[in-house]
Amino acid sequence: MPLVYRKTKHGLEYRNEAPHLVAKRVAEGWCTSKADALAPKPAVPVAAAPAPAIAAPVADDLPVAVDDEPEADDAPPTRAELEAKAAELGIKVDKRWSDKTLGERIESSLTNASATPSEG
Questions:
Q1: According to the model, what pLDDT value does residue 87 have?
Q2: Residues 6+ apart with CB under 8 A from 3
Q3: Would you say 82 and 102 are in contact if contact means Cβ atoms under 8 Å apart?
Q4: pTM for the whole thing?
């Protein structure tokens, strides 16, 4: 079985490899001889960074679009929002409840409140 070698910080590492795996090991950085493994590696040239694109100057007197409509809040309520709503409805919150359970309790409280006519 052929040997493959590679230089490590502690010395030279080698292993017996099956002939059909030698090409794979060479592609991974192993060498087929001790001399190749111990030889200094050639410096890899660093590619020059591309020049930064120059942005066109923006005139200060151009009109700026203003979005007067607030963005739609499709995000689920935060834990703090759920706890605040539960306190508003008089629901005792168990800290072990998940956000889903707390939301279900708030929903059922709101449903029960709307089903019961208020006296007044």
A1: 93
A2: 14, 15, 16, 17, 32
A3: yes
A4: 0.38
Q: Does any domain span residue 73?
A: no
Number of domains making up the chain: 2
Q: Which helix (H) or strand (E) holds 97?
A: none
Q: In this structure, is residue 21 part of a structural domain? A: yes
110 is a domain residue: yes
Contact indicator for 33, 43 with CB cutoff of 8 Å: no
Residue 64 exposure: Cα atoms within 13 Å on the Cβ side: 6
Q: 70-105, pLDDT tens digit by residue?
A: 666 778 889 999 999 999 999 999 989 999 999 999
Domain encompassing residue 92: 79-115
Note whether residue 67 is domain-resident: no
Q: What is the C-alpha to C-alpha distance for residues 18 and 15, in angstroms, rounded to an integer?
A: 10
**Contact assessment for residue 3 and residue 16, using Cβ atoms and an 8 Å cutoff:** yes
Q: Give the span between the Cα atoms of 3 and 35, in whole angstroms.
A: 13
